[in-house]
Amino acid sequence: MQTTLELEFQAELNQREFLEKVCYRPDEKERIVASLLAGQSLFVLGEAGSGKSALLEFVANELQDQGFPVVRINPSTAKQIMTELAQGFGLETESLEGKALTTLQLQQSVEQFLAQTTGFIIVDNLPRVSISVRLWLEKLYDRGQPILAAGKIKPEKDLIFKLVALELGAMPPLFIRQIMLETAKKLELEISPHEYARLQQRTGGNPAIAQKVMREFFLGLPQARPAAHQNYRGWGKWIILPFLLLSLFRYAGREPVQMLGAASMSTLVITRILFTPSKRRLGGHY
């Protein structure tokens, strides 16, 4: 019998296999492919779990199916990224003497290849890529090299500033429901339509959260409450009260009018702190 950890691990594997087969952002994929083939560059912007990495993978596969060389890279050291680019484009990474090429030599080799061949570079999580690599990519961009990148944020600096953003919004409810159905099928879950509707409200149109919600339901885990919903005033008000009382005592022995005014104001503030319910930010569960 599989343990809970084993079941969750198998669910993760099933999730990856499922996402590799189905593209739930076909319009965005077609738009990106058309833009790259037209020599344009794009930055796919979206929150965590919105499907950026999966979308980049589908775009890469589409371009490769059309016969173009494509290399997808992730944040790493400059030497590792240049080595992956060279290997991905079928270039040598060692000299005739069998020595590993330097980062500069690899850069020059990739530049020469892209100057003679139409190829594409796809960068996942570009904001976390080292500045030296981003500056090199910016040089390629200025020469007309199409680059596709993605990230959760888009800092207005160097290459990232120059790339046109394509922001991923919430995934349509129909696709979210399909992801939930497929995830439930992988987990062999039987859920009523009413339960599906209730769980879908927690997804916020985020495909990764849709899968996570189903796994939590499968494991019988309680609904998690994020930090944004916590009541921080519970202990904070007791820190504020002594300072208010101290301010009140400062007026002791002064004119009656001043004492009365200070007492009234302090009483009002203390009452609001003690008896006003703490406000919580409205929103989804994630």
Task: Give structural notes.
The chain has 286 residues and is an alpha/beta fold. It contains 12 helices and 5 strands. It has helices at 4-21, 26-37, 52-65, 78-88, 103-116, 131-142, 158-162, 173-187, 193-200, 207-219, 233-249, 256-275, and strands at residues 42-45, 70-73, 120-123, 147-151, 164-167. The chain has a 5-stranded parallel sheet. Helix 11 (233-249) runs antiparallel to helix 12. It is globular.
Topology of this protein?
Layout: H1 4-21, H2 26-37, E1 42-45, H3 52-65, E2 70-73, H4 78-88, H5 103-116, E3 120-123, H6 131-142, E4 147-151, H7 158-162, E5 164-167, H8 173-187, H9 193-200, H10 207-219, H11 233-249, H12 256-275
Parallel strand pairs: 1-4, 1-5, 2-3, 3-4
Helix pairs in contact: 1-8, 2-3, 4-5, 8-10, 11-12
- What is the CATH level 1 assignment of the largest domain? Alpha Beta
Low-confidence stretches: 225-237, 277-286
CATH fold name of the largest domain, please?
Rossmann fold
Number of domains: 3
Describe what is shown at a glance.
With 286 residues, the chain is of the alpha/beta class. Helix content is 56%, strand content 7%. Strands 2-3-4-1-5 form a 5-stranded parallel beta sheet.
Feature tags:
3 domains; 56% helix; 5-stranded parallel beta sheet; 7% strand; alpha/beta; globular; 286 residues; Rossmann fold
